């Protein structure tokens, strides 16, 4: 009997953390990397640690983050959307995770998927296009390696294509043209579109997309 492939329990999802409180427990270099990623996506970051690395201290002094230079307390999780436990003390991290679950706060314990509700993928961005790679926590190094290989294949043209596709979609809606997903997949012929965008032929690419989509779509009466 053929063995059924085990499915990862991690459901891929993009969470809007803009303006939301995100708690990081820990003040070292690992915590710093987590803080930088959260700030990149517009979070209100609060850091709790008796000692902060120089860069976190600078961020706190400039008001980029809120820092509580003391030991973590359970009430620090109040109103947090997510929490990241990034101390070098496994017991302390587990304590943060347990309290976060009691409070309904999604938690990530660095390098400890067993005690985490979510794991952070290795990712890169091209404008509004985000490409993320995960190995379900089995090998972060492999995820980073795959990401670095993909980065070489996806240039800034993909950011421009995402903007262009958004413009085309908006124009079609205004004109009362409905296009199903299969038609979009057919028209988004990436190689020729990307080549046009590489050479600045944005309007030509747009006209091609509009013409093809209108031919495949339906116009509302």
Describe the structure.
The chain has 221 residues and is an alpha/beta fold. The protein folds into three domains: 21-120, NAD(P)-binding Rossmann-like Domain (Rossmann fold, 3-Layer(aba) Sandwich); 121-154; 157-219. It is built from eight helices and nine strands. The strands form three sheets. Strands 3-2-1-4-5 form a five-stranded parallel beta sheet, sandwiched between helices. Helix 5 packs across helix 7 (190-198). It is elongated and about 65 Å long. The termini are far apart.
Strand coverage percent: 15-25%
By CATH, the superfamily of the largest domain comes out as: NAD(P)-binding Rossmann-like Domain
Show unreliable segments: none
The second-level CATH architecture of the largest domain is: 3-Layer(aba) Sandwich
Strand ordering within the main sheet? 3-2-1-4-5
Question: What number is the mean pLDDT?
Answer: 94
Question: In short, what is this structure?
Answer:
Helices cover 44% and strands 16% of the residues. The chain contains eight helices and nine strands. The model has no long low-confidence stretch (mean pLDDT 94).
